[in-house]
Amino acid sequence: MNIEIASRQLEALGNPTRLTLYRTLVRAGRGGLPVGHVQERLDMPASTLSHHLKRLVAAGLVRQERAGTSLICHAEYPAMDALLGFLTDECCADECCAEEGRNRGDA
């Protein structure tokens, strides 16, 4: 994942309403939730929900699909995994350098 994608996704999740919405979809599992159920769970006007869903879809964190007359929202788990990996993959990668500096007296 590149830093621009990660930045867009983190920006989208930086809004408390969108983060709550995203967590609701993550909790729903791979089957997702119809928009109407999301709206009921979050007690949110349809226009507000639509605005926030649009931002999450644009960031690649959520996808929507039609099932008959329903619009089903799904968390994009591969995108979530990639973002988490981006944040954690290099965790403490420079720690050995800091340890070496301390051992030489540089730190």
Automatic annotation (TrEMBL):
UniProt-recorded Gene Ontology molecular function terms: DNA binding; DNA-binding transcription factor activity
Annotated keywords: DNA-binding, Transcription, Transcription regulation
InterPro entries assigned to the protein according to its UniProt record, in alphabetical order: ArsR-like_HTH, HTH_ArsR_DNA-bd_dom, Metal_resp_trans_reg, WH-like_DNA-bd_sf, WH_DNA-bd_sf
Cited Gene3D superfamilies: Winged helix-like DNA-binding domain superfamily/Winged helix DNA-binding domain
Segments forming domain HTH arsR-type: 1-95
Domain of life: Bacteria
Protein name in the entry: Helix-turn-helix transcriptional regulator
Organism: Stappia taiwanensis
